[in-house]
Amino acid sequence: MAGRQYTKSHEWLTVEGKTVTVGITEFAQSQLGDVVFLELPSPGRKLEAEESFGVVESVKAASDLYAPVSGRVAEVNDKLAAKPELINSDPYGDGWILKLDLTGELPQDLMDEAAYKKFTESQT
Amino acid sequence: MKRTTSAPNLTASAARRTPLFERHVALGGRMVDFGGWELPQQYTSIRAEHLAVRKVAGLFDISHMGRFRVTGEAAFNFLQSLLTNDLSRISRGRAQYNLMCNEQGGILDDLVVYWGDEGFFVVVNAANREHDLAWMRDHAPDGVEIEDRTFELALIALQGPRAEELLPATGFADLPYFGLRAGQVAGLSALVSRTGYTGEDGFEIFIAAEKVVSVWDAILENGATAGILPAGLGARDATRLEAALRLYGNDMDATVNPYEAGLGWTVRLDKGDFIGRDALAQVKREGPSRTLVGLKTAPGDIARHGSVVRRQDRVVGGVTSGTHSFFLGHPIALAMVEVASLRVGETAEVDVRGREAPAEVVQLPFYRGSARSAAAPAKS
Predict the structure, then answer these.
(1) Contact status of A10 with chain B (Cβ, < 8 Å)
(2) Kind of pairing between the strands at B229-230 and B58-61
(3) Which of B50, B84, B127, B154 is least crowded, fewest Cβ atoms below 10 Å from its Cβ?
(4) Which CATH architecture has domain A5-104?
(5) What is the value of ipTM here, to two decimals?
(6) 3-state secondary structure (DSSP) of residue B155
């Protein structure tokens, strides 16, 4: 399994075979503040890379979520409906958002941890 | 992830710092710009801090608020001519919620006047400080001194049902709601008022900037086992909104008059002349055309400032403030709507992320906390 990769729109992903797990980053959750609700797609939906697939509502703001890769939604994290705060407390673990079945290639512009760290530092 | 809608005034950038800045950072505060000041949005989580204020107590740094000392033999008459409320209804040792209006009756700011032994303290919103000061100085006659004490005096607020018990001081338990008294907090001289902006009982503590850190630490230490928490802007906004306390710049501005904002009780037309009186007398005679109402929506449907409000497909107004209430378990919002367009119990439609969500019109405030008198909403 490859390490965690990151997008400029602050999603993270891990790839295991054809399965891609997606969430939002620690930086993103800290910027958002307390998450109170997620609007997420149903399993089966096809997503194109960079397509908006849902919304995360925090106390502060509503933010769009973007698919980091093209794929079909295989699974949505059901725990988030009752406990959206998992996004804040464990963004890389229990706060994962969805799993996609990869339908295309991985985009070329994904960042590794060091590159993403540099990217977020340029954002603040 | 990209932001589509957001609460105003909460973005990260360099700004002024209060004397507690280092403390906020040491406590893990996530610092944001608020009215030109760098303040913590939260330390741990907005939820935890919000619930601490409602159930135990929370400690807020509100040193960003503008603080003016108004003194001189003509100070009382000057403030009477400048503000809408009647200071002759209080006396030394008391505070009063008040509005400053322009000639057209538009609200320039909401503020609290504290009548102390050394004259009057006027505490105003941070973003309005410079404008308010210029307005006051422009209208001040000879015999009135207006001094900006914002940078020498710190201001912190301990708010919650257990605030009285957890304040590390004696001699304030019998302080009445909106009372003001000089004394010692954690062994240091301070001016203490029983006021706040959360709907809870609590105290605001005026103290010299160089002493505030030790008082802050002492309060947190004294309340640690009880569950007191330092609380940031997120908890402050949520608690004030539950208590339906208006936020200047969101729920009202110079285009809104006090009757529209539901603050007609602060306008004393019978006290003598003051700026805006003629215009306000006319609004009172004819009745306001708009009014603030409370809305409750389903979990996830957070209406934000600017969201359009409809009733049976007709636009009746817009949301002025909205958030998720962790305490009540659902989103709440204030909306400025046409008078009589929405009644308590009716359902309106409000724009949420581009679709229409049902919103129930509910009685204000959304929550009545431990504050002694609900008839006198405080502004800290």
Answers:
(1) yes
(2) parallel
(3) B127
(4) Beta Barrel (2.40)
(5) 0.79
(6) strand
